[in-house]
Design goal:
By secondary structure, this protein is an alpha+beta fold. The protein contains twelve helices and 19 strands. The strands form three sheets. The chain has a seven-stranded mixed β-sheet with strand order 1-2-3-4-5-14-6, sandwiched between helices. The protein has a seven-stranded mixed β-sheet with strand order 8-9-10-11-12-7-13, with helices on both faces. The chain has a five-stranded mixed β-sheet with strand order 17-16-15-18-19. A hairpin with a 4-residue loop joins β10 and β11. The chain is globular, with a radius of gyration of 23 Å. It comes from Streptomyces fragilis.
Length: 408
Amino acid sequence: MEIRSTTAQDFDVFVDTTLTAFAMERETPAEGDGAWWSAFEMDRSLLAVTDDGRPVGTAGAYSLELTLPGGALVPAPGVTAVGVLPTHRRQGVLSAMMRRQLADLREEGDILSVLLSSEAVIYRRFGYGPATYTQRMTVDRHRAALARPRAEETGGGAAPRAGSVEVLRRAECGDLLEEIYDRYRRTQPGALSRPHRWWSLGAGQPPIARAPRYIAVHRDADGVADGYASYSVDKDRTLTVDETITVDDAAFTALARFVLGHDLVEKVVFKHLPPGHPLRWQFTDYRAGELGDSTDWLWVRLLDIPRALTARGWSGDGELVLEVDDPWLGEHGRYRLTVQGGKADCAPTSQAPDLSLDVSDLGSVYLGGTLPSTLVRAGHITSHRPGAAELADALFRAERTPHCLHWF
């Protein structure tokens, strides 16, 4: 068996092999629209080929950017289309592709990679850990009155900014959605870029895909678009919001108020909210919003630990020695992490460790979405001195809950 890089001429073979591995058919997209796989990058993809030339496995990567705590943007290959034909599973094909892919990404200078995991038990073995989470909220519209902020009732705080909401069709506002999303993702830890190529091809899920959708666009007092909600209403009178993208909480509240006030709708479903989102607390009736389908979303794999840890911003000051085991790559190292003034220095050390952990667990805590102390309590991380886990919690904490909406 050979693991080889692909070229543009391999596109159809790559797509067909991927779809066969997942028992999927090529769907005919709507006129002028692209299929979800149309943005595959053949210069970042791999084919597993048998000795007689038959393709039996695929692994790809998209060229994306990840926003880190502190606002830094770093290249983040988005691993995708990882599949093996049913006839060749459990024969080492997947392991060979993942080993080759990680080696290639390191050679290209990437400090980390990301993916969305179809099965949680598979990718932890390769060093990936769940780093962001998302949840669905279903709201009974007739109980969904939003309370007035306390600041308004007491006369304190700033008055809500004036603004407006305009309803457009998806076909009318592709460029506007792209611009708003790009502003949003640059300030949201855990968010991924959506390259222009994706928007132009309609590759992905709505609203990137040009499936019929209504788009509620929020504009601030100066008329500048600062948020949107992509939604549809089904025959059961349920309004489903694909995603709400805003640059601040005021725009989100205005869009939530709009969809929750939609006539002839019984329920409103927000498909993706970050853990701890304040919307539930904004209802007069706290129980109006029912949380469900809480799940992991973005998984992170560190490829260069010192560079990855110094790339992000930090909270507080302090020093920790991290002992990191990377069994998949056969590596084991200790790193002294020194944080001061929001920046970190990280270098190999022979000092005794404060915390011992697997590289997948380091991926989980990297964006601040998983507390190190939680993984200590779960038995994933070993703390070697009192207070080490609490210090790690304080240092790794992000300024905002990391959240990723992008599907790839």
